[in-house]
Design brief:
Helices cover about 45% and strands about 15% of the residues. It is an alpha+beta fold. It has 2 domains: about 170 residues, Glutamine synthetase/guanido kinase, catalytic domain (Creatine Kinase, Chain A, domain 2), CATH 3.30.590; about 100 residues, no CATH class. The strands form 3 sheets. Strands 4-5-6-7-1-10-12-11 form an 8-stranded antiparallel sheet. Strands 2-3 form a two-stranded antiparallel ribbon. Helix 4 crosses helix 13 and helix 10 crosses helix 11. The two termini are about 25 Å apart. The model has no long low-confidence stretch (mean pLDDT about 90).
Length: about 375
């Protein structure tokens, strides 16, 4: 296994596999923040302390075989090129903050990319498990297994009253962030999402964009996650999030049915116009591509478009990001050049899907 595997093996499980409620839920993620006793948090740590953490992680976990997961590959962030870092960000394998860490950031990745362990980000260790569809409990179970496995070798910073200690006070307690990435186009089209977001926040949850804090919700994709980490168990936090997610699923499906019933022609027109743009454009910006991909994904889920798999849309959402486009090009591209390559990539990918659907040779 090597860096090339994670850069060239572009489609990971949450993109090309369908899970429960995958017509609305793209992925489920559990992230556990952990720090080591008697070593300063990364926000104030010295270079020597940062290197000490990397040494411990390499000694105990790098290249180790994990049951049902495989051998963990160690990547030193400081040794990666800028484009390589951002490809990993776009695949949701590392955070933007870790990509910007040039001194002693690192990560451990599983071959199937379900598990990513970030080292020296905001905390010493962040265990991330990413599953397709609505599989929060499954992701939690795997994250807890890794947590227990690592705790056999490491002494985590833990207080009997407060729980796990973290750099940011909002993570103290379980140190857990549970999140679900959802595609909610009907709630956006009907403008119901505007009244729902404040209500979600009042329930102790937060709504963010595709790449977490500070990111925009492009293509009607929202990330719903917990805010409270103290005073509740990991299981209770997941149950609370699942309760809200199931309500959003119900509301989204109801809105989709209403659109089909009351605005069928207008909806069809919107979906097929967007498909036409994707299938024929010679230049397209990332924001327009995200909107069109969302429309087409909605059309697939409602049975209006029958010759395109919804997983292709998941794939295109990632593969048309700036980092991926430039990685394939072999170097930096100007914005206009990226827009041209994005349009070309989408056209060719949709043509391959049509050939496959018609029994053609796609080799």
């Amino acid at each position: 296994m090597s860096l090339e595997h994670f850069l060239n093996h572009t489609v990971n499980s949450w993109m090309n596999e369908e899970g429960p409620y995958s017509d609305i839920v793209l992925s489920s993620r559990i992230r556990l923040a952990r720090n080591l006793n008697n070593i300063q948090f990364p926000t104030v740590a010295t270079n020597e302390e940062g290197q000490q953490i990397i040494g411990l992680m390499m000694e105990h976990f790098a290249e180790k075989e994990v049951e049902k997961v495989g051998k963990l590959e160690f990547l030193n962030i400081s040794e990666l090129k800028s484009l390589e870092k951002w490809v990993l960000v776009e695949k949701h394998l590392i955070s933007p903050q870790l990509a910007e860490e040039s001194n002693y950031g690192a990560c451990l990745l599983s071959p199937n990319e379900e598990v990513s362990i970030m080292i020296n980000e905001e905390d010493h260790i962040r265990i991330q498990c990413l599953f397709p569809g609505l599989q929060l409990n499954e992701a939690l179970e795997l994250a807890q297994q890794f947590d227990d496995w690592m705790e056999e070798k490491l002494d985590f910073a833990f207080d009997e009253k407060l729980g796990f200690l973290t750099s940011c006070p909002t993570n103290v307690g379980t140190g857990m962030r549970a999140s679900v990435m959802m595609h909610l186009p009907a709630l956006v089209i009907t403008q119901q999402i505007n009244r729902m977001l404040p209500a979600i926040n009042q329930l102790g949850l937060v709504v963010r964009g595709t790449y977490g804090e500070g990111s925009e919700a492009q293509g009607n994709i929202f990330q719903i996650s917990n805010q409270i980490t103290l005073g509740k168990s990991e299981e209770d936090i997941v149950d609370d999030l699942l309760s809200v997610v199931h309500q959003l699923i119900t509301q989204e499906r109801t809105a989709r049915e209403a659109l089909l019933k009351t605005s069928h022609i207008q909806l069809e027109d919107r979906v097929f116009r967007s498909y036409g743009i994707l299938a024929n454009s010679r230049i397209i910006e990332s924001k327009e591509a995200a909107i069109c991909l969302s429309d087409v994904r909605l059309g697939i889920d409602l049975g209006l478009i029958k010759n395109v798999s919804r997983t292709i849309l998941n794939e295109l959402m990632i593969l048309t990001q700036p980092g991926f486009l430039q990685q394939y090009a072999g170097g930096p591209l100007r914005p206009n050049e990226r827009d041209i390559r994005r349009a070309t990539f989408i056209r060719e990918r949709l043509k391959l899907e049509e050939l496959k659907d018609n029994g053609g040779d796609v080799k």
